[in-house]
From TrEMBL:
Protein name (database record): DMT family transporter
Organism taxonomic ancestry: Bacteria, Pseudomonadati, Bacteroidota, Cytophagia, Cytophagales
Assigned keywords, A-Z: Membrane, Transmembrane, Transmembrane helix
Topology of the protein relative to the lipid bilayer: Multi-pass membrane protein
Location within or outside the cell: Membrane
Principal location class: membrane
Record bears the keyword Repeat: no
Protein family per UniProt: Belongs to the EamA transporter family.
Transmembrane intervals: 39-57, 69-87, 93-111, 118-137, 143-162, 174-198, 204-222, 234-254, 260-280
Protein species of origin: Hymenobacter jeongseonensis
Positions of the EamA domain: 144-272
One Pfam family of this chain: EamA
Amino acid sequence: MSKLRLDALPPVPSVLLASLSVQAGAAMAKGLFPAVGPSGAAGLRIGLSALMLLAVFRPSLGKLTSTQWRAIIPYGVVLGAMNLFFYLALARIPLGLCVTLEFMGPLLLAVSSSRRVLDFVWVLLAAAGIALIAPWNGNGLDLLGALFALVAGTCWAAYIVLGGRVSQVLPGTAAVATGMIFAALTVLPVTFAGGGLFNLTPTLLASGLALALLSSAIPFTLEMNALRKLPGRTFSVLMSLGPAMAALCGLVFLHEHLSFTQWLAVALVVIASGGATLTAKKPIPAVE
């Protein structure tokens, strides 16, 4: 994977490819839920991703400073929690809606760090889209699933902030590989408590390897590359393309058909993201 030089890609393509890879992986993960459950799928994704990244990048853990450890550990914990709550939500609501609700975290982060009126307009447009699918609209959306998605979104916002800080003290590949260790330590106790991995077979393990590659190893490396070159608010709004990709992956791979209102919500979020991308200033390092 290091031969692909993922860290050499420009920041905007890095974010878009990361989002597409994540949503395809999420669709694959949902197909594993009947066999291993959402916590089991999360454990497979994070655990195998940690092994892959450690094998490829071989970070020098013994050489890390106390400052680097203080940045890496919370980053990894938030990373693990974000994935666990996302899968818990995905077990209850469609993929496209799960990702759209999850965006509430980055959306609030974008509001808090906004410096221009136009940026705030794009955020309000995305918020209107999210409001269309909120559970209080009586659309039958599972309340607990929606809550899990919002918690995952909160973790996502924290991941953006902490990832930006980590990228300032440690190279992207080493940061992702080391952070994934603590993500695995966060998720695996829940995975084993759920008992899903007791049903693991060679076929499921192979699916887990593909899931880890699509959902973690590739996208997190791409995201760390983008976070080193983009301000946190621009990264946040760019990631709102995720709902459209998720809805399409859910339709194609999971046969999840959304209503007109739900598609409209996704479209509003995508328009907001495109507008923010077109009007963004020259990227600068993300320092929070």
